[in-house]
Design a protein that fits this description.
alpha/beta, four-stranded mixed beta sheet, binds 6-O-phosphono-beta-D-fructofuranose
Length: 281
């Protein structure tokens, strides 16, 4: 918007994209859009191009930006929740989460094969910024022996105790799923702390950071349906004259939540799932 780099999304432009990862829009976080000047520049460019409303796709930062933009320039904006982190209030699920989760899961399964074959302990770091959704869901799906997330405080002593108990039970392999935002640090830092402890000397310990592979690849069917459904609903909302609302999904129905509300709340990991991690580990 700031550069005025617009492209009409006609039938040709959007045909054969549903199976692709990433974004054909090339939209990304923008420092310039965080400033009043940057947003003013964007509004000028929009007006020049005859564009009268916006669908903002992204996470909480995007929705905050869209709200500021609407307040400053009066351009109607409707949001679509797009982030692998799944941490946006106003929707049961964000677009991209299911794909990222399944990518993490497939890779945890693969790592489990090596862990099993060589009796290893793997610390696998997954994305999610400061939210533990990918970690909890992939941890449960991958049968992780321990899941560490920013939402719950687990001390290093508790981690050690849990792992030493597992080893004394002759568990063949162990997988610890670590959310990148966990307060103990990433998987690398936790491994470093374990390696310094003589009780772990005999353990064949490895670290694997899944990283950006979680942000790419062909979307799952669930994500494709969710994106199509919410995209349609966002456009319809703009045509009805609505603004500053997020088109989200709630109990399998499209539901709209105002930006003001969602910017004040945080989506939290279901405590039942956190408890389940402990039970199955
Ligand atoms: O917010 C989505 C996310 O993928 C986070 O899970 C992760 O921390 C971050 O973006 C990575 O951002 P970047 O690609 O800028 O390193």
């Amino acid at each position: 918007m700031i550069e005025g780099d617009f492209k009409a999304l006609d039938r040709n432009a959007v045909s054969s994209i549903i199976q692709k990862g990433g974004t054909i829009l090339k939209s990304a976080r923008s420092d310039r859009f965080r400033s009043v000047d940057g947003r003013t520049q964007a509004a000028i460019r929009l007006r020049e191009a005859g564009i009268d409303s916006l669908v903002a796709i992204g996470g909480d930062g995007t929705m905050r930006g869209a709200l500021a933009f609407h307040k400053e320039h009066g351009v109607p904006c409707v949001g679509c929740p797009g982030t692998i982190d799944n941490d946006l209030y106003g929707t049961d699920e964000t677009i991209g989460f299911d794909t990222a989760l399944n990518t993490a899961l497939v890779n945890i399964d693969r790592i489990r094969d090596t862990a099993d074959a060589h009796n290893r302990l793997f610390l696998i770091e997954v994305m999610g910024r400061d939210a533990g959704f990918i970690a909890v869901h992939s941890g449960i799906g991958g049968g992780a022996e321990l899941v560490l997330i920013p939402e719950t405080l687990t001390s290093m002593d508790e981690v050690k105790e849990k792992l030493l108990n597992l080893m004394s039970e002759h568990v063949r392999s162990s997988i610890v799923v670590v959310a990148e935002g966990d307060e103990l640090g990433g998987a690398g830092q936790i491994a470093e702390a374990l390696r310094k402890d003589t009780s772990f000397e005999a353990i064949d310990l490895r670290v694997c950071i899944l990283g950006h592979i979680q942000r790419g690849g062909s979307p799952t069917a669930r994500d494709r349906v969710l994106a199509s459904r919410l995209g349609k609903s966002a456009v319809e909302a703009l045509l009805r004259g609505e603004t500053s609302v997020l088109a989200g999904i709630s109990n399998d129905n499209v539901a709209f939540t105002s930006f003001d509300v969602l910017n004040q709340r945080r989506m939290t990991v279901n405590p039942d799932l956190v408890a389940l991690c402990d039970i199955i580990s």
